[in-house]
Design brief:
With about 260 residues, the protein is α+β, with helices and mostly antiparallel strands. It has 2 domains: about 15-205, 2-Layer Sandwich (BirA Bifunctional Protein, domain 2), CATH 3.30.930; about 210-255, Roll (SH3 type barrels), CATH 2.30.30. It is built from 5 helices and 12 strands. The strands form 2 sheets. The protein has a 7-stranded mixed β-sheet, sandwiched between helices. A 5-stranded antiparallel β-sheet has the order 11-10-9-8-12, with no helix packed on it. The longest helix has 22 residues, at about 170-190.
Length: about 260
Amino acid sequence: MSTPAPILRRFNNIVYQYASVTSTNDVARELAESGAGEGTTVVAEEQTTGRGRLGRTWLSPKGEGLYHSIILRPDILPSNAPVLGLVVAVALAEFVRERYQLATDIKWPNDVLIRDRKVAGILAEAETSPNGIRYIMAGIGINLNQTSFPPEVAAQATSIKLETGQTSDPDEVRQKLYVKLDAWYDRFLGQGAAEVIRRWSELSSYAEGKAVKVITGDRTISGITRGLTPTGALIVEPPTGEWEAILTGEVQRLRKE
């Protein structure tokens, strides 16, 4: 007897699938502006101009990864919006650990790593109004079946296939990931950010005691990580001893433990 598919509260109900798009977040934004509901998903076999955090390019070759965006319409304060990136990162890291038996790490705020190499990234883009959050596009890219990467990123990237030898079906991965994401998103909306931040901190070696350099705007801050604030900012203790809460930036590890 086959196991019945889990019932998802919010995700995988309305899915738009494309062979190629500029960016799944671009399409999701158009749908959201047209009134698409929470959980509406955009999936593409490739992205011609896929985006990562801080304006970086996300390489999205045809058929080799899972490239998708989800429209979220949470009833939360704009100050809590960054926690949604942590929600997705927790769900994604747990999924990879359980599905593939791989040890994962999360680099703040939401890069999922295997052996210090990036296997997945998240780009959460919010649209706000004076009344709060209108919607958020949560773009998720997972390197699944790549066997090589361009020289400029080869030392920093990996894929599920490179780590396990397995070929993955993107649609199957997406549906199973949504079971995790559905549970964590529901927990966040019902219980707040504390449990999400606690679990993120368990899954991330960057949460506490990591020597890092953070590039944020035109500033570079070096120090030791001291956890997250209740809204997901990274706390860094520089040599001066005056802790700083970093809202956005690129984190680089200073030394290997």
